[in-house]
Amino acid sequence: MKEKSGFTGSRGRLNRALRCLVAAAVALGAVQFAHAKTQLLVYTALEDEAMKPYKDAFEKANPDIEIRWVRDSTGAVTAKLLAEKNNPRADVVLGLAASSLTLLDLQGMLMPYAPKGFDSLTRKYSDANTPPRWVGMDVWGATVCYNRVEAEKRHLPKPTSWEDLTRPVYKGMIVMPSPVSSGTGYLDVTSWLQTFGTDKGWKYMDELDKNVAQYVHSGSKPCTLAGTGEFPIGISFEFRGHELQAQGAPIDLIFPKEGLGWDMEATGIMKTTKQPEAAKKLADFMASKEANEITAQWWAIVAYPGVAKKLSGIPDNYPELLVKNDFAWSAKNRDAILGDWQKRYGNKEQK
């Protein structure tokens, strides 16, 4: 009887211990669940160095939300989003070209949303619909990065216009981004077509192509290559040129007198997001003065008035140099333009 009683007592103690363990596990699970963060999948074409400041500032203000980035060039992000149209993954698109976001909107993929504080932003830098489908962050424009040391070695004159770049003296001396993969390359091509007219625009690119050594897959890389002297001239944008100048690279930034193609980095919410409230909080943050102050570290024109700072190498009349840009036209004609461009010049694209 003692043996049986001892067994029963041990079993009782074991059952109580198991119940305690189960209760503790349930409690721990409840705590973990309570502290689980909402994850936002954010597709972006931001430059690498810009991603961390936005993420850190947003997550500090919203500790219950975590940004998970998927980063690539503008063309690659745009293509990925279109390919996923029937099975979308992204919650938010941030730092993508306005021309690409306009294309997504034409496909019915973006949620109309006016973020908190939207009325404080410069209205022309966001989608014209009410409420907007995308909200601008900053303007980036075409810039020619010119390595004065390498140019002197090769006896190359300093260009002042787009037309100058077609001169035979620059044969093999120029590198520029491919419009297929790069938003900067696409704004170059569409601005030439809009500024010069369709026929003259393609004729201009025919002549320019004779002097282009290679079309690369990044908008910033041509300026980087000019900075290192691998090529004396890179068609790029002001962000990278300003940054390289600050690092001591022997480059001048040239803003061609015919005018500059440009686009907007912007934010849009995917209509299919499963986290709409968290996505709206991110859109609210990107429209805030705080986020625009982060943006102003690199860009001469930002959406929040009075926040932009004078950046070295960027002319005071920079906004006046931007050509008229029809985002809807660029979006609607994207496939046709890229198809023509690839037939004409795709043999020089970086492999």
TrEMBL record:
Superkingdom of origin organism: Bacteria
Matches recorded under Gene3D superfamilies: Periplasmic binding protein-like II
CDD domains (UniProt xref): PBP2_Fbp_like_1
Signal peptide (residue range): 1-36
Keyword Signal: yes
GO annotation, cellular component aspect: outer membrane-bounded periplasmic space
GO biological process, any: thiamine transport
Statement: the UniProt record of this protein carries the keyword Protease: no
UniProt GO MF annotations: thiamine binding; thiamine pyrophosphate binding
One family name in Pfam for this protein: SBP_bac_6
Keywords recorded for this protein, A-Z: Signal
NCBIfam families: phnS2
Name this protein carries in UniProt: 2-aminoethylphosphonate ABC transporter substrate-binding protein
Organism: Paraburkholderia saeva
Upper lineage: Bacteria, Pseudomonadati, Pseudomonadota, Betaproteobacteria, Burkholderiales
